[in-house]
Amino acid sequence: MKHTISYILFTILSIGLFASGLYFIKTLEDPQGILRVLPYICVGLGCVMFGHGIGGIVDQLAMKNNSAAAKQLEIDKKDERNMAIANRAKAKAYDMMIHVFGALILAIALMGTDLTVVLQLVFAFMFILGYSTYYRFTYYKEM
C-alpha cells in the first residue's frame, strides 16, 4: 500500500510537469536562453515519469490481486540463472556500447563540432572506461 501511494504521487507530479511544459510551449512567444529548451525537457520528463508511475501502479495492483503470481515473480527475480543471464546481457551491451560510443565521438569530431562538445563526450567515455577498470580490478581481487 505504501508503494502504491508513492506511485500515485509520482504520477500526479508527472502530469503537472507535463502540463506546465505544454503551457510554457504555448505561451512563451520569444524564449531566450534556457527557456528555449526547458519546456520541452519538462514535457519529456513528464512523459517518462508518467509511464513509470502508471507502470508501478499497475504492477502493484496486479500483485495485490494475484498472490501466486507475486510469489512466482519474486522467485524469478532472485533466481541465480536469471541473474546470470541479465549480467551476461549487460556485459554484451557494454562491449557493444564501447565501440559505438567511440565511433560516435570520432564522427562528431570529424564533423567539426565545437571542441567543448567533443571534449565532454571524450571525458564521459573515459569515465566509463575508468569505472569499468576500477571494478574489474576490485572483482579480480575478490575472486
Could you give the topology of this structure?
Blueprint: H1 2-27, H2 38-65, H3 67-78, H4 80-110, H5 115-142
Helix pairs in contact: 1-2, 2-3, 4-5
Q: So what's the overall shape? A: flat
Instruction: Report the C-alpha radius of gyration, rounded.
Output: 22 Å
What is the N-to-C succession of helices and strands?
Answer: HHHHH
Please report the total strand number as a whole number: 0
What about the largest sheet?
Answer: none
Number of helices: 5
Low-confidence stretches: none
In whole angstroms, the N-to-C terminal distance is: 41 Å
Q: What helical percentage do the residues reach?
A: over 70%
Could you explain how this protein is built, in words?
With 143 residues, this protein is an all-alpha fold. The chain is 87% helix and 0% strand. The chain contains 5 helices and no strands. Helix 4 packs antiparallel against helix 5. It is flat. The model has no long low-confidence stretch (mean pLDDT 89).
Keywords:
5 helices, single chain, mainly alpha, 143 residues, 0% strand, flat
Q: What would a concise description of this structure say?
A:
The chain has 143 residues and is mostly helical.
